[in-house]
Amino acid sequence: MELVKKNCYSMPQVTALFYDELATIILKRQLNAKVQSWIDEEIANEFQDKYVTDIDVESVAQASEGFVSSGLFYSLEHEGSVAGIAIDIVKLTDSMVVPAAKSADLESPVCAVCLNPLFRLLKSCEEVRNGNLDDIDALLGCPVKTINIDNLQKPDKYSVKERKHICAYIFNTINWFREMLNAFSSHPDPELRLKVIERLENIIRLQDVLQSFLKFSPELKPPASEKNLEFLSTVKEVCIKVKAKPLSFQKQQKSNSQLKKDSSVTQCDESISQREEEKKTSKNMLTTNLLDHFKVYYRDLDITVFSVFSWAPISNSFGENSKEAKQDDALEAKVSAEQVAFLLNDLYYKVNESLKPKQKLINLSKVKQKLINLSKVKQKLINLSKNLHNQNSHTHIPFVSENCMVDRVLDLTSVLCLHLENASAFYQALASDEEDLDDSYLPSSNSDHMEACYSLVLQVLIAVTSWSGFSNDANEELLESFFVHIYNRVHTTSEVKVTREQLLRESFVYLENFSNSVPNLNCAVLLVKLLISIENKANLADLRTKLGNLGKKFLQKKWSIVDCEMMSKRSELIQQLLRTYVTYSDDRFDCLSTITSTGMTELIESEGRQASQTYPLLTKQSFGCFFRNILCELVQGVKQISSTKDGTNDNAVCQWNAAIKVLQMLTKLIKMFTAKSNISALLKQGQKFIDVFLRSGMPILDKMFRLKKDDVLNMLKTLQHSTRMLHHICSHSKSVGDIALVAHVPPMKRSLESFVYRVKVMLTLHNCQDAFWIGNLKNRNIQGTEILSQRPASPSESESVDCGANSGDEEKSNSDDDNVDKTDDDESSKEDNKSDELICSDTEY
Q1: How far, rounded to the nearest angstrom, does the alpha carbon of residue 624 sit from its chain's CA centroid?
Q2: E-strand stretches of 10-97
Q3: Beta strand 144-147 with 69-73: parallel, antiparallel or unpaired?
Q4: What CA–CA distance (Å, rounded) separates 289 from 211?
Q5: Strand-pair partners of 64
Q6: pLDDT digits over 567-588, tens only?
C-alpha cells in the first residue's frame, strides 16, 4: 500500500483502482486482523486530512472561479444548523488539470479520481470493524463545494474550454453523490433514508444540466477517472511492429489514433484554434441522449442501492417528488417516478450485463503474436475496445455471480410488480372513462417517466426469465421462487402448496392483465416477450392461444402517433406482434389470409391509403413491413406441413390450398406497391415457397390426386396465377437493370421451370395430360405491359393464351414442338426470351 502511494503519484487512476480492489478484499474479510487494523487507521487519517475540508466563514460565501461562481451547496443538514465539514470538489477537480508539485510529505495523489475509491475503502473498513457507518454518516449530508448550477448561463455562452471545466465539476459531483448512495442506501435509519432520496434527486438534476452542456459539446470526453485508463496503448505498439504496406498502414494508424482518442482523457490539441472547435461543435449538435457516453465512467452503483425500491411505494398519482413526500411525512421516504426510472435503468443494465452470454475477451499476448494481417487489425481493435469498455463499465459486477444476481433480483420481484401495478393504475386513471387509452394520452414529463418505469420493469423481468441458467436443474428452486413472488401478488394466502403448472399459469394471467393499460407500442411488445418467455417454460396449449389473441389485440389497437415516429423501430415492433399473432394462433394460414384480404384491402380502399380500419398499424408506410413478414411467415408455415402416415392427407391439402391463396393475394398486391424492397421480398420468399411446394407439396398431391382430383386441379390453377406474376416480376427486374433484383431471377426461373415439368409428370402418371398444357409467356412488366426489348426473335415463340376447352389445338401442338422436343442447346439459347407455363385447358386466361 505504501509502495502504491509513493510510486503512483503521477498515475492517480492506478491508485484509485488499487483502493477499489483493496475495498473488495476487505469486504470479503480475507485480510489478517493486524493488517486490517493498520489499514483502518491509515485510511481514516488519510481521508480526513486530505479530502475533508473544515467550514469557515470565508468558505460559506460564494466565490468566483473566473467564468463561473462556486460555493457550498447541497447541504442536507437541518435548517439553522451549519455542517462543520465539506467536500471541496472544485479544488479536487482543478488538481487534475494543473497537478501540484510532488513534495516529501505528500505520498499519494490528492485529486477527484481518488476521492470515491478512497471513501469506498474507508466505508468497507468501518463496516467490517463496527458493523455500521455511524462514525462517517455525517458525510452523507455534508455540503459540497462546487459550482452553482442555478447561476449558469446558457451553454452556448461559454467557450469549449469553459464547458469542459463545467462538465468536469458536475461529473465529479455526481460521482461523489453516487458513492453516497452506495454507502448509506442500506441504512435503516429513516432520517438517513430521506437524505439518500435527496442525494438521488441531486444526481438526476445534475445529469440534466450535464446533458444540456453535452448537446453543445458532444466531442467532450469524461474527465479522468479509474475507468478510462489508456488501455489501448499496448495495442498501438502491436500495430507499429507489424507495419508492412505504407498505404494500408496509414489508414490503420488513423483508426488506431481514433480509438485512442475515444478512450483517453488527454486535453484537446492546442494546435487547433478555439474558433475551429466552435465551428465543429455547432455542426455536431446532437439530439440523442449524450449521457450514454459518460454513463460508463460514473461510479458503479452497488446492488444494495436498489433496496430503495422497497422503502415506500409510489402513490398512484406518481407525481410527487421527495420534497412533497417530506411535507406529508417527515419520517417517511418516498421516491418519485423519475427516481424509480433512474434506478430501474441502472438495474436493467446490471442484470443484462450479468446474465447475458459472456463474450470471449481478446488476449493481448495472442494479439501481439497473431496480428499479422493488417486488414484485420481494425476489426480486432474495435472488438478489443468494446470488450474492455464493457468490462470497465461495471467494476463491481464481476464480483457478483449470476446466481447471486438472480437471487438479488428475486428479492425485488414483489416490489417491481408493485411499481408495475402503480404505473398501470396511473394510465388507467389517465384514460378515465375513455374507451381508448391512447385517445386521451397526452405526453408530458411525468408520463415520460411513467413510460420509462413501465418498460424498464418489463425489461428486467424479461432478462431474468430469459436467463439460460434456469435450464439447469440446480436452479429449479430459483425459478419457482421467482414465480412464487408473482403468484403472491394475486393470492395473498397460500395454505396449500401449488404446483409449478399453477404457478406459471397464474403468473401468466397476472401479467396478461396489464395488456389493458400498456402506454405505447414498445411496452406492448415487451409484455408479449415476457409472456412468451413464461409460456416457453410452461408449454401449455391454453397459454399459447392467449398469446395469439394478445398479439391480434395489439395489432388491432390504434396506437398514438407519438409512439410511431421512428419507422425502423416501429418495423421491429410490428414484426414481433405479427409473428406472435401468427405463430401462437390455432390456424396460421387463416391469420395470414385475414390480414391480407381484410387489412390490406381496407388499406387500398382507404382515402389516400392512410391506414387499415381493422389493423391501424397497417399503413402506407408500414405496408412493406407487413408484406415482408407475411411472406416469411407463409414460408415458415408451409415448411411445417407434412403428410400423415395413415395416408389421409386431407388436412395437409387444405393447408396447402390456404397457403396458395395467400400467395396469390400477395402477388396481386405487388402491382400497387411496387417498392424495390417488396419486389425483392416476393422474389426471395416466392422462390422458397415454390421449392417447398415441389419438395413437400407435390408428393402429397400425388397421393391425393385420385381421391380429390378437382381440388388438386383447382389448387394448381390458383398457383398458376402466382407463378405467372412471378415470371412478370423476373422480366421487370431485368428490364429495370437493378443488380439486387436481377440476382434473384435465375434461381426463381429455375424453380418455376421445375414446377412446370413436375406438374406435367404428375398429370402424365395419372393420364390427365389434357388437364393442362405447356405454353410460352411473353415477357411483361409488373403492370402487365409487354416488354418489347425482351420480345423473342422467332414468331413461333408466342404466348399461348385464351385457351378454352374446345380451342387451342394449333397452339398446343406448336408449344409441344417448341418446349418439349427442343434440344438443350435450343432451350439455353432462348432462355432469356421465353418462359414455360402451365395453362389450364378448361379455363380461359
Answers
A1: 22
A2: 52-54, 63-64, 69-73, 85-88
A3: antiparallel
A4: 7
A5: 69
A6: 668 889 999 999 999 999 989 9
